[in-house]
Amino acid sequence: MAIEIAMPKLGWTMEEGVLVEWLKKDGDAVNAGEILFTVESDKALQEVESFDSGILRIPPDSPPPGSTVKVGALLAYLVQPGESAPFEKQAAAKAPAPNAAVQTTASATPIARQTSQATVRANEAIPNISPRARRIATELGVNWMQLKGSGRTGRIVERDVRAAARPPTFAPVVIPPPTQITPVAQRAAQELGVDLNALAARFPGKRITREDVEQAAKENFTSHLKAEPREQTTSQRAPMTPTRRVIAQRMSESAHTTAPVTLTTEVDASELVRLREQLKADKVASQQPIPTFTDLLAKLSAHALREHPALNSRIEGDEIVTEPSVHIGIAVDTERGLLVPVLRDAQNKSLRQIAAEAQELVARTREGKASGDELRGSTFTITNLGMYDIDAFTPIINLPECAILGVGRIVPKQVVMDDSERVAVRRMMFLSLTFDHRLVDGAPAARFLQRIKQLVEQPYLWLVD
């Protein structure tokens, strides 16, 4: 008896999903436990395995890859060797009489052949591309129709588009002394396609930094635009993915439901930077993940939230629910949009534990392998845009949470240290706290942010925790 394969429900809130691709073809033999297809839900990209063995039969009218399919909708069948699929039996039952069949076949064959050939040509002409890669291709003026994808089954992803937008690569870097280049600048040059030999010749004896590389990349890009003006293209339209629809819905709900207020303060992160450098230099723990600044802020935020539990609360109906545990959400930029994996019970974990767990969670989220449970249930969120040279911004509350902490870049600045007006260069950083004024008033929120500032400037206050 044929076994139906339907769109699975991969989360409590899932009502539909995108059928991304079949990993087995029509007519392939399937063993129990093998992966059949991948689905993009509102949370993650997940692989769906077969619970039974048999021959995969996909009906002609089954939703094609890229389609949005309701949970429970029929996708295919598993049949036993020699068994016909239900759609084949239905087609046989509806077949016309022999004479009519001959006439129909004779008249329809050329049209069917032409339609089949046109379909093949259409499929060959339109590569498979992720929505994010399509958007970036439009922004950078890249003709993605000519690209070869490096994703699974040849799908064009963001890195393919960005690689096509870069200038051609150059010969291996040979920098004559006494020119020096920082490791960060070397990585940036490789990513942006900047010729370090030419840059070294341009600035002999100068220590080349990331800023020099980025400026050279901008100049190369500007000259490229002037030399080869791009043709005006027509607007491109693409349906919103389930993930993007959920993001849009939640951002809209947050803006219209909460009473958001943002507080911003500048903190001296010099001791936090020094602590991270010491952790990087620790030879004993060299095999363990090095905590990022987001990891450090997650640990100290968990400490501060235990002291200020009102910021670890939410509204349910007419009640305010304050959670005993701190579940820190980490905002992660992915190909499918902004997702927030959750570090659970952060108040009970060491810094090294948080670093190891966060590294794995972020990697799984970017690869689309994080489960729905790993992407829900946070009580407080941290969003860090410092790596994009952003100083301060207004983060949007991740409902149903009470607050979210926005983190800016760390920049060396001259700072007046005390009443004697002594000036020193310190590593400064902006922190922006957006909170829901329905739950917390301004003064308690300000005290919480003040405590965060104190813990950043004096890390030993929470390291003993």
Account of the 3D structure:
Residues 100-125 have low confidence and may be disordered. The chain is globular, with a radius of gyration of 28 Å. Helix content is 36%, strand content 22%. It has helices at 86-93, 98-125, 131-140, 158-165, 183-192, 196-202, 210-227, 242-257, 270-281, 293-307, 351-366, 442-457, 460-463; strands spanning 3-6, 16-22, 29-30, 35-40, 45-49, 54-57, 68-70, 74-79, 180-181, 207-208, 260-268, 313-316, 319-322, 328-330, 332-334, 337-339, 342-343, 380-384, 403-416, 423-436. The strands form six sheets. Strands 11-20-19-18-14-17 form a six-stranded mixed β-sheet, covered by helices on one side. Strands 1-8-6-3 form a four-stranded antiparallel β-sheet, with no helix packed on it. Helix 5 runs parallel beside helix 7. It is built from 13 helices and 20 strands. The chain has 465 residues and is α+β, with helices and mostly antiparallel strands.
How confident is the prediction overall: mean pLDDT? 81
Shape, per Cα inertia axes: globular
Strand composition percent: 15-25%
Characterize the quaternary organization of these chains.
single chain
Distance between the termini: 61 Å
| Biggest sheet details | 6 strands, mixed
Number of helical runs? 13
Q: Can you give the helix content as a percent range?
A: 25-40%
Radius of gyration: 28 Å
Query: What structural class results from the helix and strand content?
Result: alpha+beta
* Sheet with the most strands: spatial strand order: 11-20-19-18-14-17
Q: Which stretches are poorly predicted, pLDDT < 50 over at least 5 residues? A: 100-125
Number of strands: 20
